[in-house]
Amino acid sequence: MFAIGDTLFLEPAVSDHGTRYKCKVMELSDEQIYIDYPFNEKTGKMEFFMNGTAFKATIYHDDQNVYMFHTELCGRKIDRIPLLAIHYPVENSLVKLQRRQFIRIETMLDLAVHPLEEPSSFAPFTSVTSDISAGGLRIVLQEGHPLQEGMQVLCGVVLPMQTGAIHYLKAECRVLRILHDGEREKASVHFENLGEAAQQNLVRYCFEQQLAEKKKLLNE
């Protein structure tokens, strides 16, 4: 599952800032993963963490899967360089998402839609999503909406993370289909020219929703 040299991303479970730390897997044992000291992605600075600090960990694996799991700092080790030890996750605690499949999550998120054409072909409007993935989303439409299949639009979406951080995503989109779903129409749109950082935020949001649903099912 894990290999020496893999990159891990850690987010403190109790942080409300959405700060993410990057590190590498240096050694492995049956119960622990040894990592180098994590550094803040934004500042590039290393940070000290106490034993027992809980993390949400994400790993982008070579098999094109992305894995997320919960772990905690459980020790330290001095080798050629100082290392930290985190708990190796049990298999059934891993949440896996194939990046190429872009698993779709049913969720209602605030959304704003703006035209990309000049002159503007319609007035901006607000709505909500019915579902989202790292590849696109579906917009719940009001009667008399201006969207048409093939139209290019700019979508702004609010992504509330479990850490309390809020990410504001702006993405150029193409309307693929107008769907007639019950009483409301929905627009299925595809993200175009989405940056790596924005895509990672979407993947992380989908991970969190998957994990929350998995925990809910286990507790029923």
From TrEMBL:
Keywords: Cell projection, Cilium, Flagellum. Residues 98-208 form the PilZ domain. It comes from the Bacteria. InterPro entries: PilZ_domain (IPR009875), T3SS_YcgR_PilZN (IPR009926). The keyword RNA-binding does not apply. Residues 4-89 form the Type III secretion system flagellar brake protein YcgR PilZN domain. One of its GO terms (molecular function) is cyclic-di-GMP binding. This is Flagellar brake domain-containing protein.
